[in-house]
Amino acid sequence: AYLDEISAKEKDIGAYLTVTEEGALSTAAQVDKKRTQGEKLPPLAGVPMGIKDNICVRGVRTTCASRMLENFVPPYDAHVVERLAEHDYVLLGKTNLDEFAMGSSTENSFFQPTHNPRDLSRVPGGSSGGSAAAVAAGEAAYALGSDTGGSIRQPAAFCGVVGMKPTYGAVSRYGLVAFASSFDQIGPLTRDVRDNALVLSAIAGYDRRDSTSVDRAGGDFLSGIEAGVQGKKIALPREYFGEGIDPQVALAIEGAARRFAGLGAQVEEVSMESLPHALPAYYILSSAEASSNLARFDGVKYGFRAKGCRGVEELYLRSRSEGFGREVKRRIMLGSFVLSAGYYDAYYKKAQQVRTLIVEDFKRVFRGYDFILGPVAPTTAYRMGEKTRDPLSMYLGDVYTVPVNIAGLPALSLPCGANEDGLPIGMQLIGPAFSEGMLYQAGYAFE
Ligand code: GLN
């Protein structure tokens, strides 16, 4: 049935870069055989899903939506894929993204843009736009994405689905192609909060192959999900309603705050003065890390190789010039610049100091409150092409999502209404490290 949806809708939506039809049918048949033989199956067994194309699946082309990896077939599975295999998952295919997960609209894909299923003239958000669109269009029961600065939460908000960016270290990054290693996390995009808790329960947990993986991260996030928000203290940071926010988005968040109050929570306004510095700090630090991580794509070991080069220098130069797209090159240049000897103190070091201030600011708020409520993005889904010529205006859309990655915190993005054109509006619930269980409880109570 999902494959039928895919063949009916893909020409309009473009959520997938690769559809693994044969594999899906044969694993589904195997799972069904186990079922008819009376074997006890895990809850996700046989459920068809999609995986963002920067997460490695053995034997399946993994492109990062880049010409650089157009023909790359990984010889190993990411940790999350191994975990899902233990749950008898069924892979429908690999979903579209902004090249190397750099972007907020999925228009930076080398192969194709993805359209928002709620309005085909609009972007699905990004960079996990293919995953969000697939779930919203019924082309997958759930999907995995990655979130370095909002790439799960913002597309979830634009497409009206639920997305979780887990605590840094909760889900292994083994097999996720690195963008900015100290920010990247894998997480689920689903139709509702329960599904999300179910998928995170399957993929979270310790993995020794990721040196930042945390031992206490696993768990069953479904049990106790009905606990509600009675007596919980919720902070509403003033800085989340600054200039640039669409008034309809602000109204929907205020409505959500009242709804939580009605459910027995206590909502109070707070101030977090470090937040306005998060966006510049994010773009400095994430680009610095990206410039280092992407040094591995040199045309020698794997990936795209320019033809007819004389000498290794020309091979590096032309392979990278021809293999990477504009946005990726912009990040590499920006990152190399802020790390260079003459500018390191002024930019990279300063941004690291800001990072500490932001971490401390969140800690201070969580001493008095259980979680934070805020918008995911300042606007709803915009029209395709609207921001492609102005990268800075695209970056500004990340202003509410990046603080969470800077501080390594978990955040749940879920729908909280629609604007007058019927476009979904998303809110996010941000908690202290390893509070995913509580965030799911709050989200479930709200839903
Ligand atoms: N939009 C942000 C960026 O372009 C976040 C991307 C992400 O989370 N992968 O960097």
Automatic annotation (TrEMBL):
Q: What is its EC number?
A: 6.3.5.7
* Enzyme class name: ligase
What the entry lists under Pfam families is as follows: Amidase
An individual GO BP term: translation
The Amidase domain covers which part of the protein? 1-439
Molecular function terms, GO-annotated: ATP binding; glutaminyl-tRNA synthase (glutamine-hydrolyzing) activity
- Active site annotated at which positions? K52 (charge relay system), S127 (charge relay system), S151 (acyl-ester intermediate)
Q: Which UniProt keywords apply?
A: ATP-binding, Ligase, Nucleotide-binding, Protein biosynthesis
Q: Glycosyltransferase: present as a keyword of the record?
A: no
Subunit arrangement? Heterotrimer of A, B and C subunits.
In which family does this protein belong, per the annotation? Belongs to the amidase family. GatA subfamily.
Q: What is this protein called in UniProt?
A: Glutamyl-tRNA(Gln) amidotransferase subunit A
